[in-house]
């Protein structure tokens, strides 16, 4: 990442602006005093000085104007509402200028650090993510260590068998006794030593896994920020909307001590801004209307943040007029969502579901606050993107409650692992409603797609293999499992070979050079570093609903390539390139694992790194050339070593091509593979 001259200024400025904004709101409500005015003056003065240091004269001048607004009221602590409003305007202008400061793009094209995600949250998300990525790879090494420790148990059993075989045998010659006794003693000693080493390594591995889990938890907490950072901008939004519409509103917030992933908090802030503005525009009545209804002139908008297991619920409740059923019916007919005849039978629950579908506004006019029906649309879209849920309840005359429930973090989540023809994929558990058992005769046809019945509900059905591999759609030839997946548009059923189970995993972003796919939400690393795709529920559900039939054709098995590299980035890059070109790909993190895989299945090609712990790529190629069953399989060496000696050694051991990583070219790699495979 390039040097950012405003990096720390942004952090300080946003903290100071947040304090100034909240203080001005308190002044407007008459809650402040001389001490509060003094704190605000110090904040404005600090911001003015910091702005001058980084040569931001415009921001410094605006901070000076805030000082001029506050200075006459230092002694009294009383500021007229109109002057407090001017301070809020100046704060908003300074915030816009701070947001507009040039910022270098992060390395790799990723998102900016956490201090740029939301105001007043000085968190280095990129650095926390880097720690999580390293811990994730370390977890794969721990899993491999656990496997090796398990192998010692077999060695211990073999030592025991050897000792038993060397034990006293009837009829043995007298001269053999001393030799047999010595061999038996050695075998017994071997068994004891192997057992001791296994116990020690097992205990060390368990302790390492416990320490690793604690480190992962600590690293995840680095991404979390207090949700109270949302309160000031949301209170500002409710105040500004009320002033624009001639209403009076009291904003009350609680639960700000709860902490949330910055990557969740930033988009959620935008969704909640829409929800709060909707509460004021659609819910809260004018002072005259409230007086006529026997309510206080000032409406009440309350935001409660509640912890619910591994999720946070943001509950926004107003005490306004509620959602009028007739207004929803009328708006739905005008927008062509339902026919007039359907509108007459629409009940309250159905009306709320229509509102959640989006595109309907009950506002009688379009203005700067509401009227286009996009408020709930935005909240619904954000909730779905964050694997969350949106719900609405309303009572006429008593108010409306909108609830957005989201996971605390997106870097770690509970997933359901699924097996499809030996390929393991993960699905966020929050999107899974239930599992079904589907027999061949239980799949029906509806239009151009298959469906299954879940009680009285008809669900679009498609095998996951058809989605992932773009195979021709076909119903199950035998009974299979299916998972019911929920997205914003409803539920679908996805057929799988086996439901493996639930696990909490670290989710990493897909490598930048991976082919783009609407199905991929990220990846998690399994044992020995094998990546497993984490499916995007929205993309998966859309693919199932589309369910287009591919033309029938003869199925030709794609060549299978074994990629051998101890670097996760290189493995994922090469896997993405090869799979997008139509090849089947297996992965190995070491030459030893690769040799074990060659005994289990045939490969058309090896793509091998040179520098790996243990056996290197040169030795791997040499061994495969010496093996009668493998010598016909071509090997490509991919390495950072580019000397003439290395190239010569690659030729000597039998590599058919030599690619230098610094000169890596995707098109050249594919051309080379096509030439080698004919």
Structure description:
The structure is a single chain. This protein has 5 domains: 1-104, Up-down Bundle (Four Helix Bundle (Hemerythrin (Met), subunit A)); 126-223; 224-408, 2-Layer Sandwich (Heat Shock Protein 90); 412-546, CheA-289, Domain 4 (OB fold (Dihydrolipoamide Acetyltransferase, E2P), Beta Barrel); 560-677, Response regulator (Rossmann fold). The protein is globular, with a radius of gyration of 32 Å. It contains 20 helices and 23 strands. The longest helix has 46 residues, at 177-222. The strands form 5 sheets. The protein has a 6-stranded mixed β-sheet. Strand 11 (444-446) and strand 12 form a beta hairpin. With 678 residues, the protein is an alpha/beta fold. Helix 1 (7-28) runs antiparallel to helix 2, helix 1 (7-28) packs across helix 7 (231-245) and helix 8 (262-283) runs antiparallel to helix 13 (375-385). The two termini are 43 Å apart. Residues 106-123, 365-373 and 548-555 have low confidence and may be disordered.
What secondary-structure arrangement, pairings included, does this model have?
Blueprint: H1 7-28, H2 34-53, H3 57-70, H4 81-99, H5 125-165, H6 177-222, E1 224-226, H7 231-245, E2 249-254, E3 259-261, H8 262-283, H9 287-292, E4 299-308, E5 311-318, H10 325-334, H11 340-344, H12 348-357, H13 375-385, E6 389-395, E7 399-407, E8 412-420, E9 423-428, E10 432-438, E11 444-446, E12 449-454, E13 457-463, H14 464-469, E14 480-487, E15 490-496, E16 498-506, E17 520-525, E18 531-535, H15 537-546, E19 560-564, H16 568-580, E20 584-588, H17 591-598, E21 605-609, H18 617-626, E22 635-639, H19 644-653, E23 657-660, H20 666-677
Parallel strand pairs: 2-4, 9-18, 13-15, 19-20, 19-21, 21-22, 22-23
Antiparallel strand pairs: 1-3, 4-5, 5-7, 6-7, 8-9, 8-16, 10-14, 11-12, 12-13, 14-15, 17-18
Helix pairs in contact: 1-2, 1-4, 1-7, 2-3, 3-4, 5-6, 7-8, 8-13, 10-12
